[in-house]
Every structure is written in C-alpha cells, then in structure tokens.
Design a protein that fits this description.
Blueprint lengths: L1 H44 L10 H35 L1 H6 L19 H23 L14 H30 L8 H4 L10 H35 L2 H28 L5
Length: about 280
C-alpha cells in the first residue's frame, strides 16, 4: 500500500510539473503575441499616407520591413507549435485540457486551437470594414487611400475563396478522424471492462492499458495535425496578401486573440474562478 501511494504521489507530481510547463509555454506565447502585435501596429502607424509619393528605395525598405515582421511572426508561431507538441508527448492531457484558457475561450476551441477557416472569415470581415472606412473618408472629401485589406483585388478574392473551401473540407476530415478515434473507446478491450461483474471502478489489465496508450497516441496525432494545418493555412493566406495587407491582418488577428483571452480572464476573475 505504501509503494502504491508513493507511485500515485510521484505520478501526480509529474503530471503537475508537466501541466505547469504547458501553462508556461502558453503564457510565453501570449507575451510574444503582445510583443509581435506592438511591432506590427508600429509598422502600420508609421507608414506614410498612400497619397504621398515615395521614392523607390523608401518603398522597397518599407516592404522589406513588413516582410520581415510577417516572417518573424510566423517563425514564432511555428516554434510555439513545435514546443507544445513536444510537451504533449510527456503529458497528453495537458495538450487536451488547456486549463489555462478561460471559460469564454474553451467553447471556441477546435482541436486545442482556433479553426483555420476563422483566418479567412477575419479577412472578409476586415475587408468589408476597411473598404467602407475608405469609402466614407473619400465621400467626406478625403483622399482614397489603398494598400490595406479593403483593397483586395479580384484575383486575391478568388484565391481567398478557394482557400476557404479547401480549408473547410480539411477541417471536416480532421473532425471525422477525431470522432472515429473517440468512438473507439467503446471497442474491445477497453469496453470489456463494462461487462466485468465487479464493483472496482479502477480495475484494468495490460491489454486495456496498452489500448488506452494507443488511443492517447492517436488523439495526440490528430491534435498535432490540426496545429500543422493551422500553420499551413495561415502561410497560404499570407502568400495571397501583399506585405502591407499581411501586416494589417496579423495585427488584427493578434489583437482579437489577446482581447478574447483578456476578456475571458476578467470574466472568470469576477466570478471567482482563477487560472
């Protein structure tokens, strides 16, 4: 009994340690999001008005700066995906649980993150908002400025539309794969436990333990695949946009993510829930 209790305590301590590492990974990512957002916003606000003519060197320098910021943000995202995938190998439940998210964020999650199709929806929303802003300013006597998401070309819109359709189909396939693995919990040998005539609710055997570990690996694989899918979809979308539009989009998407996270924390704290 002493050995069993010691084993349980060690297992609990290890799980708690892994949960802490996963939580720290997420907090580091959010701080990096804030820093990236600040740099993107600075690049946008420091951009000269488009009605002012710039020489070729200035234009090239500005475009290169924006390309650098976009690639820097994508590298940060890729490193975050890799790091949390590594952590998941040590403690899979930490990958699924996301206890660091607020009760506002949890219902929005799809495979431990956002749906990639949300990127496209956000582009359409920003396109409409910024186009109307441009038009209103022009009708009030201002100059019609271009270069943001309100200035997407017909070719860009077609590519975004195609990306949306491909993304939704891929999301459905991943959701189906996850559902299939989840349903496997009702198959033998795991389901055999339900037929045992015993009151012990924690009894298992080697076959069950092996099946549970296999089930865990399968689920982790789907989540890791979803992370890579989020990354690749975002890259494809940014390849459609020009550097200024990419910076505009990334600044808006990071602000939305940060705001939802902060709103959720404030709501939970007001209700006495701590993270």
């Amino acid at each position: 009994m002493i050995n069993a209790n010691h084993s349980q305590t060690s297992s609990s301590s290890s799980s708690s340690y892994q949960q802490t590492r996963a939580h720290c990974c997420f907090e580091e990512w959010m701080k990096l999001q804030e820093k990236d957002h600040s740099e993107l916003l600075q690049a946008l606000t420091s951009s000269p008005d488009h009605d002012h003519v710039l020489d070729l060197d200035q234009n090239n320098k500005k475009e290169e700066q924006m390309r650098h910021l976009v690639e820097k943000g994508m590298n940060h995202f890729e490193k975050y995906v890799d790091k949390r995938s590594q952590l998941a190998q040590n403690d899979p439940p930490a990958y699924f649980g996301t206890t660091w998210c607020s009760t506002l964020e949890l219902p929005l999650l799809w495979l431990s993150g956002c749906r990639p199709s949300i990127y496209v929806r956000l582009v359409y929303a920003l396109c409409g908002i910024q186009f109307h802003s441009q038009l209103s300013g022009f009708l009030e006597g201002g100059t019609l400025k271009t270069g943001d998401l309100g200035d997407l070309s017909a070719t860009q819109l077609r590519k975004v539309d195609e990306l949306q359709r491909v993304t939704i189909r891929a999301e459905e396939k991943l959701s189906e794969k996850l559902a299939s693995f989840q349903e496997n919990i009702a198959d033998a040998p795991i389901a055999d436990i339900a037929s045992w005539k015993t009151l012990c609710l924690c009894e298992s055997n080697r076959d069950v333990d092996d099946a549970l570990r296999e089930h865990e690996r399968n689920i982790i694989g789907v989540y890791a695949e979803a992370d890579k899918f989020r990354l690749s979809t975002l890259r494809e979308l940014l390849n459609i946009l020009n550097p200024a539009q990419s910076v505009n989009f990334l600044a808006a998407s990071k602000k939305l993510h940060l705001c939802i996270h902060n709103w959720g924390k404030q709501r939970d704290q007001s209700q006495g829930q701590e993270h």
